[in-house]
């Protein structure tokens, strides 16, 4: 592993309910080294954003959790962990997939789309101490060699499904650790503007008119303006001609081929 600390301590589990749950329990019981990566072939109760389950085929994908200790980061800036996680995943994809052939985007807050299909997602759990973050567990689900997605076949994809080639999962994990460390060190150096600019540049719907679905199933037509410091999505509502902001459970995206 060609990194300074992320991935230097690798903990492989043949099977576990959730790598995030395992990592959080480990933090509560032992002084885990920063950069420790817990990963598994089979996650039986994987968790996604908004309480959703993350289903992954046994020994086909990457299901991993990274332990970080961002005690330099205030609670108010905790969304930067979502930004750097998404940017690390974006960089892995951009290196492996030819950019001219594939449309790689970050779907707020930290899902990654390739040609408007989800290839990766992130679940971040924090332990706070006073005004700062004491520990963070960055849980990552990355579709690598899975090709069958059942009822999710129109919304999910993988490296193999895109390229028809088997990808070395260990190589992808190493690149993921490398890029996550890169962005984490940029965050530690307080280079917030650089992170914001890169995140916004790759954000799905940025400066584009797209469709959103609200919890009451009403449709909103608008343009993504960016993300507020709080992590809320900033959208220009075409009907009211005003900016509105949404939290995680307050809006969803409608992708063209799924509308």
Structure report:
The chain has 259 residues and is α+β, with helices and mostly antiparallel strands. It has helices spanning 19-29, 79-96, 159-163, 169-188, 192-201; strands at residues 10-16, 37-43, 62-68, 104-107, 111-114, 117-129, 132-142, 209-213, 219-227, 233-237, 242-246, 252-254. The strands form two sheets. Strands 1-2-3-7-6-5-4 form a seven-stranded mixed beta sheet, with helices on both faces. Strands 11-10-9-8-12 form a five-stranded antiparallel beta sheet, with no helix packed on it. β1, α1 and β2 form a beta-alpha-beta unit. α2 (79-96) crosses α4 and α2 (79-96) crosses α5. The longest helix has 20 residues, at 169-188. The model has no long low-confidence stretch (mean pLDDT 93).
Strands side by side in the biggest sheet: 1-2-3-7-6-5-4
Helix content: 10-25%
Mean pLDDT: 93
DSSP summary: helix tally: 5
Rounded to an integer in angstroms, the radius of gyration calculated over CA atoms is 18 Å
SSE pattern = EHEEHEEEEHHHEEEEE
Low-confidence stretches: none
How far do the termini sit from each other? 42 Å
**Biggest β-sheet, characterized?**
7 strands, mixed
Q: Which term fits the overall shape?
A: globular
Q: Percent of residues in beta strands?
A: 25-35%
What oligomeric assembly is this protein in?
Answer: single chain
Give the tally of β-strands.
12
Helical/strand content category: alpha+beta
Q: What distinguishing features does this structure have?
A:
7-stranded mixed β-sheet, 259 residues, alpha+beta
């Amino acid at each position: 592993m060609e990194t300074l600390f992320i991935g230097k301590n690798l903990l492989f589990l043949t099977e576990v309910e959730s790598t995030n749950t395992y990592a959080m329990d480990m933090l509560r019981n032992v002084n885990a080294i920063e950069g420790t990566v817990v990963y598994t072939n089979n996650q039986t109760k994987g968790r996604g954003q908004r309480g959703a389950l993350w289903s992954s085929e046994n020994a086909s994908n990457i299901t991993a959790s990274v332990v970080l200790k961002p005690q330099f980061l205030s609670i108010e800036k905790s969304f930067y962990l979502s930004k750097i996680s998404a940017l690390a995943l974006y960089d892995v994809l951009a290196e492996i997939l030819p950019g001219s052939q594939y449309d790689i985007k970050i779907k707020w807050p930290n899902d990654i789309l390739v040609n408007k299909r989800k290839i990766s997602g992130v679940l971040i759990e924090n332990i706070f101490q006073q005004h700062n973050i004491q520990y963070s567990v960055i849980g990552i689900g990355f579709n690598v060699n899975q090709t069958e997605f059942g009822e999710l076949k129109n919304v999910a994809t993988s490296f193999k499904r895109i390229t028809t080639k088997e990808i070395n999962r260990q190589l992808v994990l190493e690149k993921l650790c490398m890029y996550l460390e890169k962005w984490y060190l940029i965050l530690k150096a307080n280079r917030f503007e650089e992170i914001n600019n890169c995140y916004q540049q790759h954000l799905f719907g940025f400066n584009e008119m797209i469709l959103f679905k609200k919890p009451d199933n009403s449709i909103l037509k608008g343009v993504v303006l960016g993300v507020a410091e709080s992590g809320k999505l900033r959208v220009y509502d075409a009907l009211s001609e005003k900016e509105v902001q949404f939290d995680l459970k307050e809006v969803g995206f409608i992708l063209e081929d799924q509308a």
